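Table S2 (continued). Query chain:
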Amino acid sequence: MTGFPEKERVDSYRDHLSTVWGIAATASTDALTHRLSSTEYQDFVNWKNTIAMDNHPSTLDRFYHWLMSGSRFGSVQSSRWVEILTSGIWATVALQELNLCGPVLDIGCNAGYWNSWMSYHSQTAITGMDKREVAIHFGQKRQNELGLENTLLVADFMDAHPAHLYTAIVSLQGLTESFHHQDKRIFESVAAYLMKDGYLIMIDELPGQSLHYEKMWKQAGFHLFAAGMAGGLGIDHEWKSYLALVLKLGGTDTTKTIVDAENATEQLWQSFHLFGTDATIDWTLRNSAYWWAAHEDAVVFL
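Corresponding output:
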């Protein structure tokens, strides 16, 4: 079974990000200098440097308070446009291919731009969760303005006690902070939110220790179910790449490994190369979402 996201669906998510959240591609290779004031841009550079040296939760909280004030959110998040677009589309196709009809939890949802779009395209109830109160309040206000009734929760999945169980958890780089802090409870905490035979759909950068994380998810009762890739040409015209995985909780098939997933992903990137480097194609289309829509499978079942 393979999934093909229609170009119209990719265009729809792209338009939603732009019109609702201000997250958009731009022809400028240095987009933020054109979208922020000079003072705001320098503040953003300072924040990036600060976080690079100290990504403690309190530092990130202060950054998010700065980010959500004024009209900076869309401009700054546009620096991650290709990651946001391609990871959201991959998760959407993965959910479709898994044919899930139960509730879904979006961990690390930020302001909820993916689940707000899914409200228009899926009957599945999707709850967003993020530990940054300012992000959830910002997102809830925007979704209320749109007349949406999505549930957005302020909670840290590592500490919270779930009131409900879900058929699937989606994490679009939402586990990054936990990965970087080497928290051994990541997958055990995720498993606590899932029904039996539930799925974790994750797109992230496993920072150089993929075998270590594989051991952790196996200990928590997960096994590798499917893989893929997300990314493409960013607004800075640099290549962004992410590993996409589907893990299943329970079951007995433990034969597939992270090496199998990485090999499958490498083959996908090699196939993508000609499309992605074709200078005759508009740069905003040279990413995995539009590549899938053109001619390639998005989800590889292992």
